[in-house]
Fold:
Amino acid sequence: MALDMSIFPPLPLAKLEVGQHLYWQIGNLKIHGQVFLTSWFVIAVLILVSILATRNIQRIPTGMQNFMEYALEFIRDLAKNQIGEKEYRPWVPFVGTLFLFIFVSNWSGALIPWKLIHLSSGELAAPTNDINTTVALALLTSLAYFYAGFSKRGLGYFAKYIEPTPILLPINILEDFTKPLSLSFRLFGNILADELVVAVLVLLVPLFVPLPVMILGLFTSAIQALIFATLAAAYIGESIEGHGAEEHE
Amino acid sequence: MDPIIASASVIAAALAVGLAAIGPGIGQGNAAGQAVEGIARQPEAEGKIRGTLLLSLAFMEALTIYGLVVALVLLFANPFS
Structure:
Protein backbone atom coordinates (compact mmCIF):
# COMPACT_ATOMS: atom_id res chain seq x y z
CA MET A 1 0.00 0.00 0.00
CA ALA A 2 1.42 3.36 -0.95
CA LEU A 3 0.80 6.26 1.33
CA ASP A 4 -0.29 8.79 -1.22
CA MET A 5 -1.66 11.99 0.24
CA SER A 6 -3.84 13.00 -2.64
CA ILE A 7 -5.23 16.10 -0.92
CA PHE A 8 -2.09 17.93 -1.92
CA PRO A 9 -1.24 18.56 -5.53
CA PRO A 10 1.30 15.94 -6.54
CA LEU A 11 4.85 17.12 -5.94
CA PRO A 12 7.59 15.42 -7.90
CA LEU A 13 9.90 14.71 -4.95
CA ALA A 14 7.35 14.20 -2.20
CA LYS A 15 5.87 10.79 -2.52
CA LEU A 16 6.03 8.14 0.11
CA GLU A 17 6.12 4.53 -0.81
CA VAL A 18 6.35 1.86 1.84
CA GLY A 19 5.95 -1.77 0.94
CA GLN A 20 6.25 -1.24 -2.83
CA HIS A 21 9.14 -2.88 -4.54
CA LEU A 22 10.70 -3.35 -7.92
CA TYR A 23 10.37 -7.11 -8.21
CA TRP A 24 12.87 -9.22 -10.12
CA GLN A 25 11.93 -12.81 -10.79
CA ILE A 26 14.83 -15.27 -10.54
CA GLY A 27 13.63 -18.87 -10.68
CA ASN A 28 11.02 -19.17 -7.97
CA LEU A 29 12.41 -16.25 -6.04
CA LYS A 30 11.00 -12.76 -6.07
CA ILE A 31 13.68 -10.32 -5.06
CA HIS A 32 13.56 -6.61 -4.31
CA GLY A 33 15.49 -5.10 -7.20
CA GLN A 34 15.83 -1.58 -5.82
CA VAL A 35 17.69 -2.86 -2.75
CA PHE A 36 20.14 -4.74 -4.96
CA LEU A 37 20.79 -1.69 -7.13
CA THR A 38 21.60 0.54 -4.17
CA SER A 39 23.63 -2.17 -2.40
CA TRP A 40 25.75 -2.63 -5.52
CA PHE A 41 26.26 1.11 -5.61
CA VAL A 42 27.40 1.11 -1.96
CA ILE A 43 29.73 -1.85 -2.53
CA ALA A 44 31.19 -0.16 -5.60
CA VAL A 45 31.83 3.04 -3.65
CA LEU A 46 33.58 1.12 -0.86
CA ILE A 47 35.76 -0.88 -3.25
CA LEU A 48 36.66 2.20 -5.25
CA VAL A 49 37.68 4.16 -2.17
CA SER A 50 39.75 1.24 -0.87
CA ILE A 51 41.55 0.88 -4.20
CA LEU A 52 42.21 4.61 -4.41
CA ALA A 53 43.55 4.64 -0.87
CA THR A 54 45.89 1.66 -1.26
CA ARG A 55 47.04 2.14 -4.86
CA ASN A 56 50.08 4.19 -3.98
CA ILE A 57 50.94 3.66 -0.33
CA GLN A 58 53.31 6.20 1.15
CA ARG A 59 55.23 6.14 4.38
CA ILE A 60 53.73 9.48 5.31
CA PRO A 61 50.05 9.21 4.39
CA THR A 62 48.30 11.98 2.53
CA GLY A 63 44.80 12.52 1.24
CA MET A 64 42.72 9.41 0.77
CA GLN A 65 45.25 7.08 2.39
CA ASN A 66 45.27 9.27 5.49
CA PHE A 67 41.48 9.17 5.67
CA MET A 68 41.29 5.40 5.31
CA GLU A 69 43.99 4.90 7.92
CA TYR A 70 41.94 7.02 10.27
CA ALA A 71 38.86 4.88 9.54
CA LEU A 72 40.85 1.68 10.08
CA GLU A 73 42.22 2.93 13.38
CA PHE A 74 38.72 3.84 14.51
CA ILE A 75 37.40 0.37 13.69
CA ARG A 76 40.41 -1.32 15.29
CA ASP A 77 39.91 0.60 18.52
CA LEU A 78 36.23 -0.29 18.50
CA ALA A 79 37.00 -4.00 18.12
CA LYS A 80 39.80 -3.83 20.68
CA ASN A 81 37.53 -2.21 23.25
CA GLN A 82 34.77 -4.78 22.86
CA ILE A 83 36.60 -8.04 22.12
CA GLY A 84 39.78 -7.53 24.11
CA GLU A 85 43.45 -7.01 23.39
CA LYS A 86 44.29 -10.68 22.79
CA GLU A 87 41.56 -11.87 20.45
CA TYR A 88 40.44 -8.82 18.52
CA ARG A 89 42.70 -9.00 15.46
CA PRO A 90 40.90 -11.70 13.38
CA TRP A 91 37.56 -9.94 13.89
CA VAL A 92 38.58 -6.49 12.69
CA PRO A 93 37.64 -7.23 9.03
CA PHE A 94 34.17 -8.49 9.98
CA VAL A 95 33.33 -5.63 12.32
CA GLY A 96 34.83 -3.14 9.89
CA THR A 97 32.80 -4.47 6.98
CA LEU A 98 29.61 -4.24 8.98
CA PHE A 99 30.36 -0.71 10.09
CA LEU A 100 31.45 0.62 6.71
CA PHE A 101 28.63 -1.04 4.75
CA ILE A 102 25.91 0.17 7.12
CA PHE A 103 27.42 3.63 7.42
CA VAL A 104 27.78 4.19 3.69
CA SER A 105 24.33 2.70 3.03
CA ASN A 106 22.66 4.99 5.56
CA TRP A 107 24.41 8.08 4.32
CA SER A 108 23.85 7.25 0.68
CA GLY A 109 20.12 7.08 1.41
CA ALA A 110 20.25 10.49 3.05
CA LEU A 111 22.72 12.31 0.79
CA ILE A 112 22.11 11.02 -2.73
CA PRO A 113 18.88 12.20 -4.40
CA TRP A 114 17.74 8.72 -5.39
CA LYS A 115 14.19 9.96 -5.92
CA LEU A 116 15.24 11.65 -9.16
CA ILE A 117 15.68 8.23 -10.76
CA HIS A 118 12.31 6.77 -11.61
CA LEU A 119 11.62 3.07 -11.41
CA SER A 120 8.56 1.26 -12.71
CA SER A 121 7.51 0.55 -9.13
CA GLY A 122 9.04 1.20 -5.77
CA GLU A 123 11.81 3.71 -5.32
CA LEU A 124 15.53 3.75 -4.67
CA ALA A 125 16.55 4.41 -1.07
CA ALA A 126 19.12 3.29 1.46
CA PRO A 127 19.55 -0.52 1.30
CA THR A 128 19.16 -0.64 5.07
CA ASN A 129 15.57 0.58 4.95
CA ASP A 130 14.53 -2.84 3.68
CA ILE A 131 14.14 -5.37 6.49
CA ASN A 132 15.72 -8.15 4.42
CA THR A 133 19.08 -6.38 4.39
CA THR A 134 19.13 -5.77 8.13
CA VAL A 135 17.98 -9.30 8.95
CA ALA A 136 20.75 -10.69 6.73
CA LEU A 137 23.34 -8.57 8.54
CA ALA A 138 21.98 -9.58 11.95
CA LEU A 139 21.97 -13.29 11.08
CA LEU A 140 25.56 -12.98 9.86
CA THR A 141 26.40 -11.52 13.25
CA SER A 142 24.71 -14.48 14.98
CA LEU A 143 26.69 -16.95 12.89
CA ALA A 144 29.87 -15.02 13.61
CA TYR A 145 29.51 -15.15 17.37
CA PHE A 146 28.55 -18.83 17.33
CA TYR A 147 31.63 -19.55 15.24
CA ALA A 148 33.79 -17.43 17.52
CA GLY A 149 32.60 -19.26 20.62
CA PHE A 150 32.93 -22.72 19.07
CA SER A 151 36.37 -22.24 17.58
CA LYS A 152 37.68 -20.81 20.85
CA ARG A 153 36.08 -23.06 23.45
CA GLY A 154 34.74 -26.11 21.61
CA LEU A 155 31.79 -27.82 23.25
CA GLY A 156 32.49 -25.90 26.43
CA TYR A 157 30.75 -23.06 24.66
CA PHE A 158 27.40 -24.60 25.63
CA ALA A 159 28.28 -24.21 29.29
CA LYS A 160 27.31 -20.56 28.97
CA TYR A 161 23.68 -21.62 28.67
CA ILE A 162 23.59 -22.90 32.24
CA GLU A 163 25.52 -20.04 33.74
CA PRO A 164 25.11 -18.76 36.41
CA THR A 165 22.39 -21.33 37.26
CA PRO A 166 20.58 -23.94 35.13
CA ILE A 167 17.27 -22.17 35.94
CA LEU A 168 18.23 -19.47 33.46
CA LEU A 169 18.50 -21.96 30.58
CA PRO A 170 15.30 -20.86 28.77
CA ILE A 171 16.23 -17.20 29.06
CA ASN A 172 19.74 -17.88 27.76
CA ILE A 173 18.33 -19.74 24.77
CA LEU A 174 15.79 -16.98 24.16
CA GLU A 175 18.64 -14.49 24.13
CA ASP A 176 20.07 -16.11 21.00
CA PHE A 177 16.83 -15.28 19.20
CA THR A 178 16.30 -11.79 20.60
CA LYS A 179 19.83 -10.67 19.71
CA PRO A 180 19.39 -10.78 15.89
CA LEU A 181 15.76 -9.64 16.25
CA SER A 182 16.65 -6.48 18.15
CA LEU A 183 19.74 -5.81 15.99
CA SER A 184 17.76 -5.97 12.75
CA PHE A 185 14.68 -4.11 13.98
CA ARG A 186 16.74 -1.33 15.51
CA LEU A 187 18.58 -0.57 12.29
CA PHE A 188 15.58 -1.05 10.01
CA GLY A 189 13.24 1.04 12.18
CA ASN A 190 15.67 3.90 12.62
CA ILE A 191 16.50 4.27 8.95
CA LEU A 192 12.91 3.88 7.77
CA ALA A 193 11.73 6.32 10.44
CA ASP A 194 14.30 8.88 9.29
CA GLU A 195 13.22 8.60 5.68
CA LEU A 196 9.51 8.76 6.60
CA VAL A 197 9.94 11.85 8.76
CA VAL A 198 11.92 13.63 6.04
CA ALA A 199 9.38 12.61 3.38
CA VAL A 200 6.41 13.82 5.45
CA LEU A 201 8.11 17.16 6.12
CA VAL A 202 9.01 17.56 2.45
CA LEU A 203 5.39 16.86 1.65
CA LEU A 204 4.22 19.67 3.94
CA VAL A 205 6.97 22.27 3.35
CA PRO A 206 9.23 21.42 0.42
CA LEU A 207 11.93 24.01 1.09
CA PHE A 208 14.46 24.56 3.92
CA VAL A 209 12.23 23.36 6.79
CA PRO A 210 13.23 19.67 6.41
CA LEU A 211 16.95 20.53 6.54
CA PRO A 212 17.44 20.32 10.34
CA VAL A 213 15.62 16.98 10.38
CA MET A 214 17.84 15.75 7.55
CA ILE A 215 20.93 16.69 9.55
CA LEU A 216 19.50 14.87 12.56
CA GLY A 217 18.94 11.93 10.22
CA LEU A 218 22.61 11.95 9.20
CA PHE A 219 23.59 11.95 12.85
CA THR A 220 21.30 9.05 13.83
CA SER A 221 22.39 7.08 10.77
CA ALA A 222 26.02 7.33 11.81
CA ILE A 223 25.18 6.42 15.41
CA GLN A 224 23.16 3.40 14.25
CA ALA A 225 26.08 2.11 12.18
CA LEU A 226 28.35 2.57 15.19
CA ILE A 227 25.88 0.77 17.46
CA PHE A 228 25.47 -2.17 15.10
CA ALA A 229 29.23 -2.65 14.84
CA THR A 230 29.74 -2.15 18.59
CA LEU A 231 27.06 -4.68 19.49
CA ALA A 232 28.33 -7.24 16.98
CA ALA A 233 31.81 -6.90 18.46
CA ALA A 234 30.40 -7.08 21.99
CA TYR A 235 28.50 -10.31 21.24
CA ILE A 236 31.60 -11.86 19.66
CA GLY A 237 33.74 -10.82 22.61
CA GLU A 238 31.18 -12.18 25.06
CA SER A 239 31.08 -15.62 23.43
CA ILE A 240 34.88 -15.77 23.20
CA GLU A 241 35.65 -14.98 26.78
CA GLY A 242 32.84 -16.88 28.49
CA HIS A 243 30.46 -15.46 31.07
CA GLY A 244 29.24 -12.11 29.84
CA ALA A 245 31.62 -9.30 30.50
CA GLU A 246 29.17 -6.68 29.36
CA GLU A 247 25.43 -6.95 29.01
CA HIS A 248 23.46 -4.95 26.49
CA GLU A 249 19.65 -5.40 26.67
CA MET B 1 -10.08 -3.47 3.62
CA ASP B 2 -12.91 -3.88 6.09
CA PRO B 3 -13.55 -0.41 7.61
CA ILE B 4 -13.60 -1.76 11.16
CA ILE B 5 -10.21 -3.42 10.69
CA ALA B 6 -8.87 -0.27 9.04
CA SER B 7 -9.98 2.02 11.88
CA ALA B 8 -8.82 -0.41 14.56
CA SER B 9 -5.43 -0.66 12.86
CA VAL B 10 -5.00 3.09 12.71
CA ILE B 11 -5.90 3.50 16.39
CA ALA B 12 -3.62 0.60 17.32
CA ALA B 13 -0.76 2.10 15.32
CA ALA B 14 -1.17 5.44 17.09
CA LEU B 15 -1.26 3.73 20.48
CA ALA B 16 1.78 1.60 19.65
CA VAL B 17 4.00 4.59 18.95
CA GLY B 18 2.49 6.79 21.66
CA LEU B 19 2.80 4.26 24.47
CA ALA B 20 6.23 3.11 23.31
CA ALA B 21 7.45 6.70 23.60
CA ILE B 22 6.61 7.04 27.33
CA GLY B 23 9.18 4.72 28.87
CA PRO B 24 12.18 5.72 26.74
CA GLY B 25 11.20 9.37 27.31
CA ILE B 26 11.53 8.95 31.05
CA GLY B 27 14.71 6.95 30.64
CA GLN B 28 16.37 9.43 28.30
CA GLY B 29 15.46 12.29 30.63
CA ASN B 30 17.05 10.47 33.55
CA ALA B 31 20.18 9.61 31.59
CA ALA B 32 20.64 13.13 30.24
CA GLY B 33 20.11 14.64 33.69
CA GLN B 34 22.67 12.33 35.27
CA ALA B 35 25.12 13.05 32.46
CA VAL B 36 24.80 16.81 33.02
CA GLU B 37 25.37 16.27 36.72
CA GLY B 38 28.42 14.18 35.95
CA ILE B 39 29.84 16.86 33.66
CA ALA B 40 29.19 19.53 36.30
CA ARG B 41 31.12 17.51 38.87
CA GLN B 42 33.94 16.52 36.55
CA PRO B 43 34.18 18.81 33.52
CA GLU B 44 37.37 17.07 32.34
CA ALA B 45 35.43 13.82 31.75
CA GLU B 46 33.03 15.51 29.35
CA GLY B 47 34.13 13.70 26.19
CA LYS B 48 33.84 10.25 27.70
CA ILE B 49 30.47 11.01 29.30
CA ARG B 50 29.11 12.39 26.04
CA GLY B 51 30.11 9.30 24.08
CA THR B 52 28.53 6.92 26.57
CA LEU B 53 25.42 9.09 26.78
CA LEU B 54 24.89 9.11 23.03
CA LEU B 55 25.30 5.35 22.80
CA SER B 56 22.85 4.67 25.62
CA LEU B 57 20.37 7.24 24.28
CA ALA B 58 20.36 5.33 20.99
CA PHE B 59 19.62 2.11 22.88
CA MET B 60 16.62 3.72 24.56
CA GLU B 61 15.48 5.21 21.30
CA ALA B 62 15.43 1.71 19.84
CA LEU B 63 12.55 0.82 22.18
CA THR B 64 10.35 3.50 20.65
CA ILE B 65 11.46 2.35 17.22
CA TYR B 66 10.15 -1.14 18.02
CA GLY B 67 6.74 0.45 18.61
CA LEU B 68 7.13 2.32 15.34
CA VAL B 69 7.90 -0.91 13.50
CA VAL B 70 4.69 -2.43 14.88
CA ALA B 71 2.78 0.67 13.80
CA LEU B 72 4.27 0.53 10.31
CA VAL B 73 3.36 -3.14 9.99
CA LEU B 74 -0.21 -2.34 10.99
CA LEU B 75 -0.43 0.49 8.46
CA PHE B 76 1.45 -0.86 5.44
CA ALA B 77 1.61 -4.63 5.79
CA ASN B 78 -1.51 -5.39 7.79
CA PRO B 79 -1.81 -9.16 8.19
CA PHE B 80 -5.60 -9.01 8.72
CA SER B 81 -6.63 -7.09 5.65
